[in-house]
Amino acid sequence: MNTLDVYIDFKSPASWLAIGPTRAMSTELDIGLRWLPFDSRQYALAEEKPGETRRETHFRIREYERRRVHLHYASVRGVEMSFPSSPGSTRRALAAMLALGKECDAFLDAAFLAYWRDHADLDDEGVVDDLLKECGVTNLTISMSALDRALDEADQRDVIDAPTYLLGEERFLGREHLPLLRERLLRA
Questions:
Q1: Alpha carbon separation from 119 to 23, 24, 53, 107 (Å, rounded)
Q2: What pLDDT was estimated at residue 84?
């Protein structure tokens, strides 16, 4: 069975929307998935302010439209999604995902749902421990230095956002490339 590397972040709306279709493709094509951490940059929605520059207006409108599109697709697919007022950090949950390795599917679901439905702080030790317990995981050693090494590796592999799929040396950035990735996997 071939394995596809998939870089995700719990605070990335595109990652949340990509999980289901990625798993479906994996099952259909008998491809293994290796979920890897990426600490994406997400922005709080800026308020319109008097005298804002053209750049500030562009950035504000672009972020608003980006959210609108994600919410539309979430609604169409029946995925719970509510943007938190501030994106926060997801580093501890990413480190837990990394520590779980191939056994992280239940944790992925729980962490994404906790973030996008409940706006849980996925950098809080207690919150992450509770999510792990909910998934039947106790006594997991979570290493933040292992996370830092994994994030350095993502940087070396030129990963710039989440989700990013790596098929050999070919990168597919974003869930919108799943049809092309599927085609490539069928040819492989």
A1: 24, 26, 31, 16
A2: 96
